[in-house]
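UBA domain-containing protein: structure, please.
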Amino acid sequence: MDEQNKLIEQMLEFGYSKEISLKVIKKCGAKTIDEALNWIELTEENDYQEDIPFGETTVEGGNGGNGSNGSNGSNGSNGSNGGNGSSGGDNDNRCNRNEDASALGGRVSPGGGMTSTGSGEIKAKLTPEEAQKKAIELQKKIREKKLIKEKEEELLRERNRIAMAKEAQKRKEQIEEFERKKYIENFEKEKNEHKKEKEKQLELLRREYEAKFGIAYKSENEKKKNIDDLTENEKREEIAILLNNLKNKQKNKKNELVSSLNILKTYFSNIKNNILEKKFQKIKKENKIFVEKIKIYEEMINILLLVGFQDSGEFYVIKNYPNTYLLASAIKFIDLVIKNVNP
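Here you go.
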């Protein structure tokens, strides 16, 4: 049973249906795929495609029920005598057998018989060599069809794979963009909440101060001069103070601070080393690196303003010619802070 199942699987690979494979094995008793293919080639196509009994009808004279004892060798028309006839009788028997088979609509077999096609058509039986050749040709055609089909399926799979990869990349980019916007929204929300709390505490402090001393309270920011009113040296000193404060406040987050300071230093170095390149004199506020590394530190935003950047809404830009003195000073102070943080 296992051999039969294996043979059926092989015939399925050649393109035959399971029903036809079972019929072929049942009719010819094939044990190998070559035997099955040879038998199919020797049989009319419609014999196994339609529900018509398989097989060949061979009509031969000279071997009847009682022909072995017949003595009338010259009379082979009734197909019952010829076993012991003369050579002339044998020839007559073969001729008569051929005539009888022709009358039945059969075909002549290699041994002197005729093989019926079932439709009256006379067709010579294939030799084993011819049958093997035809079987090989049939196998070749089936393999070619199978190869073409496999190539088409492989091409389709590749197209589907590329389409799925593009779709996956698109979804990934959409998710990253969503997460980036969400991060910015959360950051802005926290910043606004912190600002409101700070204003609330400042207002309480103002009221308490005025109630205690009877004069108006001025915050540290109000006491400070406007950046535009500071001299170059005052701006330079303010940059140093801001960086020192930043170092002291971020003692427990040294790695994050150093990473952000290096980004800030890169901004300033690009401007200083490419003084005529306008692209280095503009920073987009929504830039991911800027948001994650610079914007989180208020001191760094103030340093940007001190070296010459201005808030234009969507960007921080240097509108006038860059101040190389302040840029060089800021770079020097940043290097000192990084060195102190990582001795």
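Notes: Residues 232 and 325 are 8 Å apart (CA to CA).
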